[in-house]
């Protein structure tokens, strides 16, 4: 049952890998022209009408290491969210978090007039999965108040804290897109959990 439910996670991992291979074939993942052509997020270009970049940027990666780290996160977190929320709600969390993080980052960049960015990667969507798991563990804690529910909630909060410490020390990592993805994923997950209990 678990393997069957994880099919969407494998599909998303495969889609990211295929898109990365396309980057390599068209000039390399570190080639600015290539990643721009394939849809990297450039805030000024998005507000000029190329809103499709809010989606495509989620499937682009700078390097094999960037791809590998994100796909490991997607594999483990995605399987858990797929199992706990179901396929349809999982896809809602993933894509709303990814699109929302890119859109929020664009809005922030434009309003602060700090637009010297080119953003790409699945980490906003993946942090959305973290947010939804946080909502789930918070619900479990609220309902059960058990030791295991408390430990799960403490673990996910510690993991989030460590992630943001990591973001702070690695300038190439977008702290804001991670934060936006996390917040969006938390509230989307919370809403879906509330609706499932009605």
Write the layout of secondary structure elements.
Blueprint lengths: L1 H4 L1 H19 L6 H7 L4 H5 L5 H4 L7 H22 L1 H25 L11 H22 L2 H23 L5 H22 L2
Helix pairs in contact: 2-6, 6-7, 6-8, 7-8, 7-10, 8-9, 8-10
CATH superfamily: Rhomboid-like
Individual helix count: 10
Quaternary structure state of the chains depicted: single chain
CATH architecture annotation name = Up-down Bundle
Number of domains: 1
Indicate the proportion of strand residues: under 5%
Query: Which residue ranges are poorly predicted, with pLDDT under 50 across at least 5 consecutive positions?
Result: none
Helix-strand topology string: HHHHHHHHHH
Write down how many β-strands occur, each being a DSSP E stretch of 2 or more residues. Answer: 0
* Terminal residue distance: 26 Å
Basic shape: globular
Give the proportion of residues in helices: over 70%
The radius of gyration is 17 Å
CATH class: Mainly Alpha
Mean pLDDT: 92
- Mind summarizing the main beta sheet? none
Structural class comes to: mainly alpha
Instruction: Say what the CATH topology is.
Output: Rhomboid-like fold
Organism: Rippkaea orientalis (strain PCC 8801 / RF-1) (Cyanothece sp. (strain PCC 8801))
Membrane topology: Multi-pass membrane protein
Protein name: Rhomboid family protein
Family: Belongs to the peptidase S54 family.
